[in-house]
Amino acid sequence: MERRVAEQLRSALGPLGLEAHAFKVGWYNAVLQPAFHLPYPDDTLAFVVLSTPAMFDKALKPFVNKERLKIIRDPVDQCVFHHLSRVKEKFPDQRVDVMFDYEMLPSRKPKFLAQTAAHVAGAAYYYQRKDVKLDPWGKKKIFGVCIHPKYGGWFAIRALLLFPDIQVPFLEQPAPVDCVSTEEKRIELLEQFNFHWQDSRYRDIIEVKERYSEEQKVYFATPPGERFRLLGLSQ
Hints:
This protein is 33% helix and 16% strand.
């Protein structure tokens, strides 16, 4: 069942520059405090959805051109919502719950921790302070960051798809690719991400096979309120 669902998602999302990686809810809940647990049985099938560099041209631009008059909030969020809503329709006999990266609970906690989901699904390695043995930062707050083995930091985690009626007790957990394997490189990555994230150098911590186009870099570097203009939209 998991394989069939994964193939359907791959055929629906791949042409849009989106990836879906399977995991069990129990893998996610096992590494988090109870306050962040997903409220499903441990064997529930879930997928974390990533956007790759190709998403900008394959999904966002066509969506903007077609739905120009209907875009009233963040165009990328609205584009992903649109396409995942259509994906749900491909599973008429299944309940499919969708959580988006921008959604919050009433407690103001995020509905899910995106980087943890990507890590447990084997999609991208979540490098954190604990992955550095000789910590050089003292009392500074250091945030972790996911690195994709193909795209480095040139990707984003957009959503979860959960299939509450599909239990996959025998699904095997893939390990994420540890592509920033030296202590020196991990320190460099976390330094760049925490203190120089605007220049995007952390995204190229490994040799990447594909990165954002110049147009896409400008788009995401522009304050959200001004991005509408870049797409030819009025706010």
